[in-house]
Amino acid sequence: MQWKKKLFDVLTVQELYAILKARVDVFVVEQNCPYGEIDNYDQVSTHLYLENDGEIIAYARLLPRNVKYKEASIGRVLVNQTYRKNGYAKELLERSIAVILEEWKEPAIKIQGQEYLRQFYGSFGFKEISDIYLEDDIPHVDMLLRT
């Protein structure tokens, strides 16, 4: 298994396909939520993922500030269903936060997290900054991490 961090323009066709398949498998199929997965943010994002023989184990999309929010952002956070409960989500978030705070030198990270993951994100220092709201019929909450 190998962690990779790539800009959109250097992803191979196979890597991009595997990423999009993993995202659709989790967010559309598993969560039974038909929505527009392809949203034109991928092209300006950094893609951080754990890959094993072409299969995506864990993935997050890191968006620079002033793209979706005024702050940098972490989105599309997932762990392949087969590999859950092995600490990959924690490692993925730690790596994502490190890229944004340490490499990009950003002072804050905003996320739009699913409501049931509030405590998980809170364990990294994210604070709720919105009420719970529905996004694609799934309860979400906006959260912010400041350094």
Automatic annotation (TrEMBL):
Pfam families: Acetyltransf_10
Domain N-acetyltransferase: 6-147
Recorded GO MF terms: acyltransferase activity, transferring groups other than amino-acyl groups
Name the record gives this protein: GNAT family N-acetyltransferase
Biological source species: Terrihalobacillus insolitus
Highest classification ranks of the organism: Bacteria, Bacillati, Bacillota, Bacilli, Bacillales
